[in-house]
Every structure is written in structure tokens, then in C-alpha cells.
Amino acid sequence: MLARTWRGVTKAEDADAYLTYLHQTGLTHYRRTPGNLAAYCLRKVEDGRAEFLLVTLWESMDAVKRFAGDTPERAIFFPEDDRYLIDRDEHVTHYEVPFAEGQAFVGHRVRFDDFRVAGPTGDLRLVDTGGGGKTLPVLFVHGLAGNASHWQAQLEHLAAAGRRGIALELRGHGGSTFPEPEDYTLESLAGDISGVVRALGLRRFVLVGHSISAGVALAYAGENPRQVAGLFLVDPMTDARRIPDPQREAFLASCDAPDVAQALRQDWAESAGPRADVREQLLADLEATPLPAVVATRRAWADFDLTAALGRYPGPKFSLVAPDNDTPRSLHRLAEGIPHQVVEGAGHWIQLDHPDAVNAALDAFLTKSAPA
């Protein structure tokens, strides 16, 4: 185990505002980084100055690098730090921890070990909480430019309840292999689910998909209806085939535009919802995902027949949606429709900014549609 320390100073009158800002940025990022064990903020106010000492505990240097990148000795700063800080350490200090006693966090912490299985185009990294007894496991699939950590709150919630949770990272995302040659059709991405199912020997399970991976989940479920006990979809993709042709052609053209990376960042920022910490995390995840993977998957969305895929899976389905996702093209409005619930005030990544609402809805779905 390692300890990481950093020191910064604000004016005394800014002490409370800066503490609030730390909760929105660094402290939240620490807690959400796989391999972080604890985060402490120490503060001393005297002589018109407020000194902050941040102490974090980590499983390993690899875990530290998930937060700090390949130069972990350099301090990480956020956009408003310059507004508050009048003195700061530009570098951090790392210590070995030869002894520690006590529980740093309350609740069940899921370890994000580097666990890999063979997929159709290379290794796939995943998280598996294990256990579960006789209850059906739940398999989570992240959205575009996401990774397994997007399901941290759901994995911990299920593990605390004694149910097995598994979160895979699709090809080209997180720690999974970038495919050669590139193949990002949603049907091909469904093959990644097949690879995990085979590797883990899953016979029957509940499948959860976010955003574009609602289409990936539907593609898999339509081909394997007996294995999928139910589909729980979080702010799922809409049906691109119902977009008027001029708009659809403009979207496809934008995928080849020189400023596509900048446009994607703007799109992510606008869709992230009201929480600054969630927005920062999502933009970092987008930056870490190879641009060709993001662009190719967006193209695949435009070609996917969501209505037909919806009709191929007859099992239980439920859609949890953000307020903006309630149009004639929305999944729950297609064909005969499916049950849905709107989460007020949520951005596109509902599982990150309203994890308790997602957990409660998932519990209700499991109880009603897939109890065993």
C-alpha cells in the first residue's frame, strides 16, 4: 500500500469555498479511481491562511497512475485551482505504508484488478465481484468512451446484497485490446459479450447496457434470448434510422471533420449533466479512448436498426432515461414500447450522477423480472 500527499494554501476567507471545490473535483476523483483505498483532507486555518493537506491511500503505484497518469510525481490540478490557491506543491510525495489498521471507507469496495479474458479480437478487461450464490448475475456494458468504473456504484451495491456483478470493457475501451482490423459494428461489439459469457461460463444472467451499448445488449439478447433473463437499459441510444436523411448525412459527414475531437468534447460536456466531478471524469475517459474507436462506433450507431433489434428479444425489458431522452426516436417509444422511468435532473450518464436512483430501479427490475 502507498500513501500520496499534497499540500496547498488558500486565503482564510476562501477555506470553505475551496473545501467545497475539493469535494467536487479531487476528492471525488480519488474515490472513483480503481485502487484508491482512502482519501483524507486535513485543514489548518491561522494567520489569514488556510493550509490543506491531502493524504490518499492506494493499493499500488499502478493504481496511483490510473489517477495521475504516467508522471505520478506531478500534482494534478483542476480548472479553478488558480482562483483559490496562493501557494501549492507542484509535486506530490509518495510513501510506503508498512502498517495500517482500521477501515478507511464504510461499505463494500469492489477491487478493479487487471482481470482479462479472450475476446473475438483480443483481450477484454473486466471486473467480476464473484459470489452471488443462486441469484442471477448481472452483466454491465458501458457506453461509448466508457469503462468498467462507470458501474462502480452498481457493482458495490450488488456485492453488498450478495449478488454477482460483472462489468466488461469493450474492445478499444479501458484496458481492452484495440482491434486489428478495426470492427465496431454493434453486432460485432455484441461478440465481446459472447466472449465474456463463454470465458466465465455464464448460463443465464441479466444484461445492463448504457447509451449505445443498449443496442449492443439488444443485438446480443436477440441472438441469445434464453441466456438473457432481462434487459435493463440506462439512457439508451435512440433510433438513428428515424432521423431525416439530411440530418443523418450531416452527422456522418461530421465524423470525418478535422475538428471531430473538439466537437466530441463539447458534446460530452453538454450531455454530462449538472455535476462538475462527473463531467471531468467523462472528459478524461473520452480523452483516454482512441479517437478511431469513438468515431467508428458513432458511425455504427447511424447504421443500426434499433426497432428491429428490439423486436428480436421477447424477454423483460426496462429503460431508465434522462429527461432529454423522450422523443419519438427514443427506445421506449418504438414498436409497442417498453416500461420506462424518467430520472429528473439527470444527465446522460445517470449511473454516475444519480447512482442511488439506478440502484433502486435495478433492484425493482431484478425483483419483478429476474428474481432467480
TrEMBL record:
InterPro entries reported for this sequence: AB_hydrolase_1 (IPR000073), AB_hydrolase_fold (IPR029058), AB_hydrolase_sf (IPR050266), Dimeric_a/b-barrel (IPR011008)
Keyword Transferase (UniProt): no
Secreted among keywords: no
GO molecular function: hydrolase activity
Domain AB hydrolase-1: 138-361
Pfam families the record matches: Abhydrolase_6 (PF12697)
Keywords: Hydrolase
Cited PANTHER family: AB HYDROLASE SUPERFAMILY PROTEIN YCLE, MONOACYLGLYCEROL LIPASE
Protein name: Alpha/beta hydrolase
